[in-house]
């Protein structure tokens, strides 16, 4: 097996976010996150349930980007059921972010003044309900100071400071598990839940991460390298989950 | 074997639009660029209706009504063309502030429809707390649980609709509707949340034939919530309407490209949207 490429390291870093989740709905949105969810279930987290994107849960490992693949259907989950699952809490979602701040406040709704945005983006979509009900992680393919900002323009997915202000009861289901970028994996495992550098991808320095982050990160003394994919993970990824390498387009 | 005598609710698109008034709040079923009642939407585009409030899991319905300036306000969780993630005509309307926006969490949106359908003033949810959904919708209120937990929740107000427009795969003349695709979306709630509901369908069938193509589980729009039925083959074009047809991606791209080019939009409008009937529209689509 040839050595792992950056996209594959990102997939594994994101798959690791699902470790220990148990029998819940794994709901990564976006192509590289879908690779990560499918890889986690095909390896160390077989109890995860998985969406195929079109109203059913698939019991088998499907290749990404192939709507004609043979799906072993194990449940019917139309959008209405999906919202019920979101609120019932047995779900870990991976979303993107056009902006994110040090407490994990996420914006993919609009850039600029909300009343007349410079750029209308996705809108609130499911972010407000996702964050306050389910475990959430983020895949951010563009690790830059334009995305990692001191303050987001619109909070679609609330972060830890806003949750703290709401109090313990309202925030009891809120968890931002992981943020993965092409430079590093980050988390909020600090006393005040500020974003922390968790691991560095091969060949990336702390300075590179700091330079491309528009706020002060918590930098531990010892920063482990991001885990490399095993041979079996590489085989699954390259031959079963994403044989056409579609994931590569998401890593700049 | 035939059913008892039931009402015949067949109408044309233009007859549906004649029932609508400017200033109304109109809900539109479907989801993004999926199973949208496009022949009914185009009948609105041809009409003099204006100052509309559009409530929708938004796709080209919202984009088109923004582009013609007939939507004064839009209520949505997202506005997307699916394969084109951001609806370009809607974006322009937002970025030039020509339309008022009420943006909700997409699950909270469902609760607004549910509350209207159930005739209660609101449904509570945790969704929205801590996010700017509340900041930017100052009309949204919270409510405190009357039970021992005392939890504060967002009260999503009932989204009452003056009219709802839906598109189904099959229907009978009495207004029983059937979806044969993967998801009903929230069309039954749109129907129940509305004062009047108008439903187009790919094909009208006799009541006794409603189970020919799908199980009883697909008969999700009962006639008690439907006022008018329009037979419109390919009535959801260019959005998808499985299993009858997929999205017309080439046409959707053509539509999306008109957002950046005023002349292209004028030509698109003249060629397709101004076609005087659904049949004339299909002729223009097939003739391109």
General description of the model:
The complex is a heterodimer of chains A (252) and B (288). Chain A is of the alpha/beta class and 252 residues long. Chain A has one domain: Glutaconate Coenzyme A-transferase (3-Layer(aba) Sandwich), CATH 3.40.1080. Helices cover 25% and strands 18% of the residues of chain A. Chain A is built from 7 helices and 13 strands. Chain A has helices spanning 6-15, 31-42, 79-88, 127-133, 160-166, 206-211, 231-241; strands at residues 25-28, 49-50, 56-58, 73-76, 91-95, 99-100, 106-107, 110-111, 119-120, 135-139, 175-180, 184-187, 196-200. In chain A, helix 2 (31-42) packs across helix 7. The longest helix of chain A has 12 residues, at 31-42. The radius of gyration of chain A is 18 Å and the shape is globular. With 288 residues, chain B is α/β, with parallel strands linked by helices. Chain B folds into 2 domains: 13-106 and 159-208 and 215-286, Glutaconate Coenzyme A-transferase (3-Layer(aba) Sandwich), CATH 3.40.1080.10; 121-157, no CATH class. Chain B contains 10 helices and 11 strands. In chain B, helix 3 (60-67) packs across helix 4 and helix 5 crosses helix 7 (187-193). The termini of chain B are far apart.
Search tags:
heterodimer; A: alpha/beta; Glutaconate Coenzyme A-transferase; 13 strands; 25% helix; B: 2 domains; three-stranded antiparallel beta sheet
Short description:
Chain A is α/β, with parallel strands linked by helices. Chain A is built from seven helices and 13 strands.
Q: Beta-sheet strand percentage of chain A?
A: 15-25%
Mean pLDDT of chain A: 96
Report the CATH superfamily of the largest domain in chain B: Glutaconate Coenzyme A-transferase
Please write the CATH class name of the largest domain in chain B: Alpha Beta
CATH architecture of the largest domain in chain B: 3-Layer(aba) Sandwich
Q: Output the radius of gyration of chain A.
A: 18 Å
What profile does the largest beta sheet of chain B have?
Answer: 8 strands, mixed
Find the structural class of chain B using helix and strand composition. Answer: alpha/beta
CATH architecture descriptor text of chain A: 3-Layer(aba) Sandwich
Q: What is the assembly state of the chains in this entry?
A: heterodimer
Helix content of chain B: 25-40%
What is the CATH third-level topology name of chain A? Glutaconate Coenzyme A-transferase
Large-scale geometry of chain A? globular
Largest interface: A-B, 44 and 40 residues
The helix/strand series of chain A, from N terminus to C terminus, equals HEHEEEHEEEEEHEHEEEHH
- Strand order across the largest sheet of chain A: 2-1-5-10-11-12-13
- What's the number of domains of chain A? 1
What class would the helix/strand composition of chain A place it in?
alpha/beta
Amino-to-carboxy terminus distance of chain A: 23 Å
Largest beta-sheet characterization of chain A: 7 strands, mixed
